């Protein structure tokens, strides 16, 4: 059994209902704090179109940035999973575009990672390997690996990430660092190459020593390749947050 708690609670904020972890220490690494709203007295005009507020033109706050807008400039209600809102919330035009792109990330990459995939896993420099299912935890903080044994890797403690790809030339294999793949199309849908494994170094909880973990997908395993491509995008996202 995992030592990572998944219990959540429903809370009401000025912006709406949110489903958040009972223990804030286990919130998603992608989560955002609710912004402080610009006080009404400090925004006599819409912060987008400069329309003056009056009895007919009312003020509305974007739930993502906290700025003050008229209804025309802040009329869209969009899901905002990074703030754990249960329902779509009012956002300005700029923020709603960002949130819509993030919804694609949650609907595609995160769902693929939480579903999991099968890999042959090798720890450190050991010559032994084990068949394990690797998946992202419900709170997005950990990689869970389950087979005859169980392993948890906290994403924030991963210091380096490499991905193994195939397909440049027949029979050739190559290893590319995570950073060199940030803008590549090699392992995305429709690319020229198939993701076949990953190699990462991390520090286990309570230790400062680097440990190595290698995952290899079985031959022609499309599910594992899709999982690796999704994990690549997750590390890209995490890097952009730092």
Annotate the secondary structure layout.
Elements: E1 8-13, E2 16-21, E3 60-61, E4 68-69, E5 76-78, E6 89-91, H1 93-115, E7 117-123, E8 130-136, E9 142-146, E10 150-154, E11 158-166, E12 173-177, E13 194-203, E14 210-216, H2 222-241
Antiparallel strand pairs: 1-2, 3-4, 5-6, 7-8, 7-14, 8-9, 9-10, 11-12, 11-13, 13-14
Describe this structure in words.
Helix content is 18%, strand content 32%. With 242 residues, it is of the alpha+beta class. The strands form four sheets. It has an eight-stranded antiparallel beta sheet with strand order 10-9-8-7-14-13-11-12. The chain has a two-stranded antiparallel sheet with strand order 1-2. Strands 3-4 form a two-stranded antiparallel sheet. A hairpin with a 6-residue loop joins strand 7 (117-123) and strand 8. Helix 1 packs across helix 2. The longest helix has 23 residues, at 93-115. The two termini are 31 Å apart. Residues 168-191 have low confidence and may be disordered.
Structural class computed from helices and strand pairing = alpha+beta
* Share of residues in strands: 25-35%
Major pleated sheet: 8 strands, antiparallel
Which consecutive residue ranges, at least 5 long each, have pLDDT under 50? 168-191
Count of individual beta strands = 14
Helix content: 10-25%
Strand order of the largest sheet: 10-9-8-7-14-13-11-12
How far apart the termini lie comes to 31 Å
**Mean pLDDT metric:** 83
Q: Determine Rg (CA atoms, Å).
A: 22 Å
Order of helices and strands: EEEEEEHEEEEEEEEH
Count of alpha and pi helical runs: 2
**Approximate shape:** elongated
